[in-house]
Task: inverse folding
């Protein structure tokens, strides 16, 4: 019998902070990255979060990564990088949203095949997903390695999240019936479109508008209160509130 | 006979400002090494517990720790330094506000309402902030200073806000008609109970329970999308989201 699946984005959906942001902080804390560029990146990623109808998170991430590598003139040793990933994931795992982390656990208990598809870097995504009990994961960005160092070159997968998901569905022979996906920005739209029960979590404006037009469920988490809103006759009704 | 002026009253921390102004100053004091090492250690654990959302009370736990330090060490803290840091913080972060409430504030001003701020944070940090945002009247915590030092005596303004509001309304001859109040925690319950149009904004659990029990409008803002939920025939319906 085919297994049911659930797909999750990571940054902003499960993890409260982006893995990149945590990575930058860790680099600064270890004295590998100057406070100047560190702060610059922090501001850039923070400003993105405050922008109203932004679709272009990818752009900001890309710029931020460029600044980061530019400020690491000798690149970064792989060993150091691996240590940093471990520290970042550890912090990230204790900084998760209540709603999504509990949903992951519930789905796991109910034998769902858990997939993480993230715009973040492969190693971080892999370490995080593995620790959370996911069955498959894809990080869309990878940092090129040579002679035991990160060269500063960044490679991005030229595939949409939907294409990635379809590949996984085929590879593991998964059932789309009863499938669910959770995302928080417009880059998750293509995946949300593919599943039976899409869930939009703390959406940005662009995703919110799309969800509203499609009648998708919206979940908000603020000050640890979780609000579940479902569309009925074109209106969103508050169905559930949890602490 | 001229019509009485309408008003709107806002809490500041967590309602308009995205953090707690008083705590932002305490954080700045910590950055500048103006607090003792013992406090730093004690607060680090509590701040981490809050960041990790270890338990439902972790925020209040952290807040309480900062507050107890403040009150314990008040007489040792330089009022001049506190005032200077307060101004710096406001200068740097005055635009770190929520979209929904800051827009509502502008709308209230445009409507000719008398706009009031009632905050439990210190005057030194609240006044520059509310002045920038064009409030007509601000009431915040005041700390007695004698010969350049805090004496420890203060006027607390974080609770019984409705009493503060009532005296303001009387003194300025304002109208209760169509009155608006916005807050985010249980300290604002009495304020919202006093007006005709109460709005619970990004409520914490206790405040949300009170708001839902009374059928108050609830607005939640996340990633700059604000969701207004209105009690309609026993259910909460999303009225607008912008």
Result:
């Amino acid at each position: 019998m085919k297994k049911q699946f659930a797909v999750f984005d990571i940054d902003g959906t499960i993890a409260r902070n982006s893995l990149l942001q945590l990575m930058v902080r860790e680099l600064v804390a270890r004295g590998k990255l100057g406070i100047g560029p560190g702060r610059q990146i922090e501001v850039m990623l923070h400003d993105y979060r405050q922008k109203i109808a932004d679709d272009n998170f990818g752009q900001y991430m890309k710029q931020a990564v460029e600044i980061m590598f530019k400020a690491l003139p000798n690149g970064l040793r792989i060993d150091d990088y691996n240590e940093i990933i471990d520290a970042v994931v550890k912090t990230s795992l204790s900084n998760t949203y209540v709603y999504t982390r509990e949903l992951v656990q519930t789905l796991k208990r109910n034998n769902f095949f858990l997939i993480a598809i993230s715009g973040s870097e492969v190693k971080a995504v892999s370490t995080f997903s593995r620790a959370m009990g996911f069955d498959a994961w894809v990080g869309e960005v990878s940092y090129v390695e040579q002679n035991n160092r990160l060269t500063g070159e960044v490679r991005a997968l030229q595939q949409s999240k939907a294409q990635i998901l379809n590949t996984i569905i085929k590879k593991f022979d998964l059932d789309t019936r009863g499938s669910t996906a959770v995302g928080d920005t417009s880059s998750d739209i293509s995946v949300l479109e593919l599943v039976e029960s899409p869930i939009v979590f703390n959406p940005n404006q662009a995703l919110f508008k799309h969800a509203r037009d499609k009648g998708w469920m919206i979940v908000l988490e603020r000050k640890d209160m979780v609000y579940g809103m479902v569309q009925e006759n074109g209106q969103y009704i508050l169905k559930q509130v949890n602490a | 006979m001229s019509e009485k002026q309408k008003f709107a009253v806002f809490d500041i921390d967590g309602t308009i400002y995205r953090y707690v102004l008083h705590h932002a100053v305490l954080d700045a004091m910590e950055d500048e090494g103006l607090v003792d090492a013992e406090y730093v250690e004690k607060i680090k654990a509590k701040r981490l517990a809050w960041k990790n959302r270890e338990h439902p009370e972790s925020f209040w736990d952290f807040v309480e720790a900062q507050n107890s330090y403040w009150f314990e060490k008040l007489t040792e803290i330089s009022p001049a330094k506190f005032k200077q840091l307060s101004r710096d913080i406001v200068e740097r972060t005055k635009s770190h506000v929520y979209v929904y409430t800051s827009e509502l504030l502008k709308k209230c001003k445009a409507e000719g309402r008398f706009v009031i701020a009632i905050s439990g944070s210190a005057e030194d940090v609240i006044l520059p902030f509310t002045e920038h945002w064009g409030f007509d009247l601000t009431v915040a915590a005041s700390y007695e200073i004698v010969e350049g030092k805090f004496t420890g005596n203060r006027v607390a303004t974080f609770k019984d806000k409705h009493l503060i509001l009532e005296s303001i309304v009387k003194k300025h001859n304002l109208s209760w008609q169509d009155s608006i109040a916005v807050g985010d925690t249980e300290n604002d319950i009495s304020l919202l109970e006093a007006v005709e149009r109460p709005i619970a904004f990004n409520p914490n659990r206790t405040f949300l329970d009170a708001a839902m029990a009374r059928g108050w409008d609830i607005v939640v803002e996340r990633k700059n999308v604000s969701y207004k939920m209105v009690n309609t025939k026993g259910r909460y319906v999303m009225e607008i989201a912008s």
